[in-house]
Amino acid sequence: MLAAFLAGCSGFGGDVSLPANAPRVIGPDRDRDHVRLVRAFGGEGRAPQLQQLLTDVTNRLVMATDRPEEAFQVTILNSPAVNAFALPNGRLYVTRGLLALANDTSEVAAVLSHEIAHVTLRHASQRTELQARSALIERVAENVLNDAEEAATAQSQSRSTLASFSRAQELEADQTGVKVLARAGFDPFGAPRFLTSLGRSGTSSDSQTGDRLASHPSTNDRVSRALQAARRTELPGGGETGRLAYLTALDGLSYGDDPADGVVKGRRFIHSRLGVAFEAPEGFSLENTSQAVLGSSADGERRLLFDAADTPEGQSLEDVLRSTWTDTIEPGTLTPGTVNGLPVVTALSNGKEWTFRLSAVRIGSTTYRLIMATRGNRGDLDAIFQQTLNSVRQVQPEEARRIRPLKLQIVTGQQGDTAQALAARMPIDRPLERFLLLNGLDRNAPLKVGDRYKIVVE
């Protein structure tokens, strides 16, 4: 359910659909979706100065829209993912990861203006109507006309129509967002600047691959259209960027994974509070979410999931796998054992396209699942599964205490500073690449004395 809920929000520019008649008054007693969403993204990010800046920017943008009487409220999500989205009732969301990527007030204002446009243009209700109409056509074909083939054709056509409709909505929100951005007095070129950074971050729209069912237009197309829209405004080359104010508010913001939810460092994951760690195989990249650690090989043919299973007290590890795995476990493959002194049970499950190796490991009173999958029946699954399982271990208190959170620090360029020199101060993987991305710099761009730059520190 969580995966389906968040599928529409990947990258900046999604809106989570509620019923068309959802209340437009924001209140704690009628905003259960807000509570669920915040919980799914690791809670609210605590950054009072930045929160005030975002609130002020939001209010300024709303007054520049065609619906200045509507109520909006912005929430910072405690997630390192680069993401922003809106609910139709006026709730706006931006993640810590997105705020770290932006380099001035006009860039983050462009994101908020885009999301406000989704709400003021009533995109969620339009999409709901289209989905309901498509569902009706499918039901008529299948139940009334008793034609399964026609129903399947209608479903395929409706998916294509919805994807095309979503792309059109994104472009419309971009265009409206740039107009409102300029109308509010911000630099309209903040929009294409941020979209460029978004494309470089690798978290941009899914239609870069040319998939006709992708819900977002390509980033290159969005950048090009945003540039054209910015040039058409009455503030060509003008408007407020608010770089100093933004970087001042950004100073000290938590960066990357919240240690309370575990930390990914390269192929290693360590959770100090729960006291567990493991290492993924060579060639895997890991993503830490509030629900699980997800991993994938570069070609996507191998996958990994590591999570904590919610199990009744006293339940055996064999029963954990039986009760939490919905597919068939191959008979005779449930095998007990130990790994690094911890009790473990492993099993095998064969799906239509994927083969799965399953395991349940118990540390204290908590049971963890490590699941690895490979498309088809690749011979290396057993080897990489066993390698990863053998790395699962209990983290000792002394090691846990050494894990310190990362944060952004704003530094002033000095004579002789280079990107390589500042990046060398960052205790993270691929520091130069991250430094250039965080600061919107090209690899050979010189640093300027007196300019401010973002670095990551402990």
What this model shows, in words?
There is one protein chain. The chain has helices spanning 2-6, 32-40, 48-63, 96-101, 105-120, 123-144, 148-183, 190-201, 219-232, 243-250, 317-324, 381-391, 397-401, 419-423, 431-438; strands at residues 14-15, 73-77, 84-86, 91-95, 254-255, 263-265, 268-271, 276-279, 284-288, 293-297, 302-309, 335-339, 342-350, 354-363, 366-375, 393-394, 406-412, 452-457. The protein is an alpha+beta fold and 458 residues long. The chain has 3 domains: 2-250, no CATH class; 259-401, Protein Transport Mog1p, Chain A, CATH 3.40.1000; 405-457, Roll (Membrane-bound Lytic Murein Transglycosylase D, Chain A). A 7-stranded antiparallel β-sheet has the order 9-10-11-15-14-13-12, with helices on both faces. The protein has a 4-stranded mixed β-sheet with strand order 1-3-4-2. α5 crosses α8, α7 runs parallel beside α9 (219-232) and α8 (190-201) runs antiparallel to α9. Residues 1-11, 14-29, 136-146 and 205-214 have low confidence and may be disordered.
Structural class by sheet pairing and helices: alpha+beta
Task: Give the strand order, joined by hyphens, for the main sheet.
Answer: 9-10-11-15-14-13-12
Total strand count, please? 18
Q: Can you tell me the overall shape? A: globular
SS strand fraction: 15-25%
Helical run tally:
15
- Rg is 24 Å
Percent helix: 25-40%
Overall residue-averaged pLDDT value: 82
